[in-house]
Every structure is written in C-alpha cells, then in structure tokens.
Amino acid sequence: MYKLLDFLTLLLNIRTTRNTTGAKPWAIHWFPKIWPVLRLTFLLLLGGFGLLFLTSFLTDAYFKEINTGKKIDSLSRVIVHYRQNHSVLPANLPEAVANDPQKRDLTRDSWGNQIHYLVQQQSRTFTLTSAGKDQQLFTADDLTLRVEVGSTI
Fold first, then answer.
1. Which residues span the membrane (predicted)?
2. Which of 5, 39, 35 lies closest to 22 in space, CA to CA?
C-alpha cells in the first residue's frame, strides 16, 4: 500500500513525510530572492507618492500667487482704460468691469476672495489688494498694487 501511495505522491509531485523529493513549498524557494525587490519597490512607491503630494501642495500655493498677481495687473489695466474713457476713476470694481463676464472674473483672487479696491480721486491713485494665502486683508502675505493715473487723457 505504501508503495502505491509513494508512487502517486511522486506522480502528482506531492511532498510527504516519507517522500522528500516532491514539490517544495512555493514560498520557500522564491520569496527570499524577491523580497529585496519588493521592499525597494514599496519604498520607491511610497517616496514617489510623498514627493508628488509635496510638489502639488507647494506648487498650488505658488501658482495661485502668480495667477492672482496677473489678475491684479489685468484689473489695473481695465481701471486705467475706464479712467481714459470716462475721465474719472470708477467708484467700485463692478462699475469698472461693467458686468462683463470675462472681466468680472478679475475681481476675485485665486483663493476665491474679492479683490479690495481703494480709490483716491484727489490724488488720482487706486490700490488693488488681494487677501493672499491666509485670506485676511492687511496682513504680511497680501498682494498689493498701487497705481497712480496720469492727469492727461
């Protein structure tokens, strides 16, 4: 009977206590060889995701600041153009953009806050201020542009 069982175990490539020539357990022969590769792959993936997160976090704030600066510059040109056409600075931003949908977008910074507009008619100057990253006006991170409009039209 044992000879028949031994023959079947050899035929089916099964390892038993009486037969040590059958198949070896799968994890024993390949896992030690592949473990360093798996560990390196895991560390590279973890580092890559960490770097991707850090890069997206840092560039998001950077590009919002750059975009807001461009919006303030464009809005100042719109206000100067309004001054050239009407001989007076606009009293508020909606008056300057004249409800033009393309220009109306210029009145908000990249963080979604309204750009603060302060006009001084006597000195023909105006100031545009974005609240910046902390979204609070008159703090250190505000983006401000002060423009003095010439007296000639």
1. 40-63
2. 5
- Quote the domain boundaries for residue 106: 30-148
Residues 90-128: b if buried by 16+ CB within 10 A, e if exposed = beebeebbeeeeebeebbebbbebebbbebeeeeeebeb
Q: What are the respective helix, strand and coil percentages of the chain, to the nearest 5?
A: 55, 10, 35
- Classify residue 23: in a domain, yes or no: no
pLDDT in tens, the chain (153 residues): 677 777 777 777 776 666 665 555 555 666 777 888 889 999 999 999 999 988 887 788 888 999 999 999 999 999 999 999 888 999 998 888 887 878 888 899 999 999 999 999 888 899 999 998 888 998 998 999 999 987 554
Gap between the terminal Cα atoms of the chain: 114
Residue 28, CA distances (Å) to 10, 23, 34, 89, 97 in order: 20, 11, 11, 82, 74
Cα 30 from chain centroid (whole Å) = 42
Please check whether residue 7 lies inside any domain of the structure: no
